[in-house]
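Worked example

This section walks through a single chain of length 268. The input is the sequence exactly as stored; nothing has been trimmed or padded.
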Amino acid sequence: MLQRLRDFFKPSPPPKLPAVPPGTRYYAIGDIHGRLDLYEALIGAIETEIAQAPEYDHHVIVLGDLVDRGPDSAGVVERTRIWQQTGNVQVLAGNHEEMFLTAFTKPEALRHFLKHGGTETVLSYGLSRKQLATMDLDEIFARLPEIVPQSVRDYIAGFETMVRTGDYVFVHAGVDPARTLADQQRSDLLWIRERFLNHVGPLEKVVVHGHTIFETVMDCGNRIGIDTGAFRSGVLTALVLEGDRRRVLQARAAQGESPAVFHGDRPH
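Given that input, the structure is written out below as tokens.
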């Protein structure tokens, strides 16, 4: 009887924290948007950590929106392709990759793309601002396949939409809370916002996502947003997951300065 009373009043064990599989370390990189300088700095820091911890099975997941808005989308795409050849790197499609590829299908899609950051992407593939200013929409549409090789378009078209591991799932924008992970629609994985961001209940897995800009890493329990607006803030974030532990790496650059990488504790 006395033992039963002790057991009744004994504190409950702490809840199990979300975790990645034992022996693995995951790096999730938020929206890059053409900031090759920040991306290179973050790659350097990640590669240094990988070299210093050979006991881990390392994985890198780039959460999409490599292109648009920043100054060197072409460089970011090429750097990612090279990184995939040497490391365990997976790349997710973002809504800006979708807009980029759709821009090759009809002039009106190109117009939409140019208005939402695509102008900087087109410039990064070799057109000058002076050339662009003298061309009408149909001329740009005709020139686009010439400056962006088919091999680049095929590479971008092969980006994934979701990666699952342990208690986490990685996507670009978020998930539809009303659907299972197996039943998600591509449009939601790349574009969803309010229905996902406003959901306060548990999800099938903790969702690590980009797409929506926050000043700091936004850990809401059921989701973690890591898009810190690199193209305008000068801060590119990577979330690092090891077992049930979380920390952040951030490449930061003030205007006119070279990027530096900062190591942070568990996001909050």
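What to look for: Residues 179 and 185 are 9 Å apart (CA to CA).
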